[in-house]
Specification:
Immunoglobulin-like; 8 strands
Length: 111
């Protein structure tokens, strides 16, 4: 995870995470950023980590999910944030099971 995002609408950051859930992840991993417990929608508002061999992920199907398209807009709140990753799996008996993981802090800085 990068230690800082630049709030300028253009500086891209890459994030990758190894995920092992025992069963395949459904789709992608959703990424949100929060500050003081509130989602900051100006950071990675449409960010998804994929395991498809594209968009920052080097090898499809290896359990490493990545995105090279994370950025902070000029409206992002400056200062420390947490990153939340949300993943969902389908269990062998057909149930959906989801997990969210928060990590950080990282800083949003002025250009």
């Amino acid at each position: 995870m990068p230690d800082r995002f630049i709030a300028d609408d253009r500086t891209l950051s890459t994030i990758s995470v190894r995920v092992w859930a025992g069963t395949p992840i459904i789709g992608s991993i959703v990424v949100t950023a929060s500050v003081n417990g509130q989602v900051d929608s100006y950071i990675g508002s449409t960010a998804y980590l994929v395991d498809a061999g594209k968009d920052g992920d080097t090898v499809a199907g290896d359990g490493i999910f990545a995105s090279d398209n994370l950025k902070a807009s000029k409206q992002a709140l400056l200062g420390p944030h947490l990153l939340r990753l949300f993943a969902e799996v389908k269990t062998p008996d057909g149930r959906h099971d989801a997990t969210a993981y928060e990590t950080g802090p990282f800083t949003v800085a002025a250009p």
